[in-house]
């Protein structure tokens, strides 16, 4: 987006009609870019922010003393490394249709 903002600033400085509006739009584009980058960083920090308890040591994995494993707050699957040994392979890592994973990989906000 900063490339587009630079183009708007260039047009504004070249005496283009509505230069003030163009400068304002360029400033808004820059703020949007910072906000978008901040949002991505926040979502990366929240990626494994939920927790699910692993199997316990009691009869048939009961007992309520299992370890707490980081979990995706969107798809509810567990951290791929930290959940090994406590969860089946299908529960490790994000689900294929996880919206958080889609955004983190592609930046697609739709």
UniProtKB/TrEMBL annotation:
The lineage of its organism: Bacteria, Pseudomonadati, Pseudomonadota, Alphaproteobacteria, Hyphomicrobiales. This is Uncharacterized protein.
């Amino acid at each position: 987006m900063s490339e587009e903002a630079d183009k708007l600033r260039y047009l504004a400085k070249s005496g283009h009609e509505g230069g003030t509006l163009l400068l304002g739009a360029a400033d808004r584009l820059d703020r949007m870019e910072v906000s978008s980058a901040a949002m991505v960083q926040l979502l990366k920090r929240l990626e494994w922010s939920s927790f699910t308890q692993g199997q316990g040591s009691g009869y048939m994995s009961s007992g309520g003393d299992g370890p707490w494993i980081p979990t995706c707050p969107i798809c509810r699957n567990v951290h791929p490394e930290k959940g090994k040994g406590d969860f089946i392979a299908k529960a490790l890592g994000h689900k294929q249709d996880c919206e958080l994973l889609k955004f983190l990989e592609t930046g697609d906000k739709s």
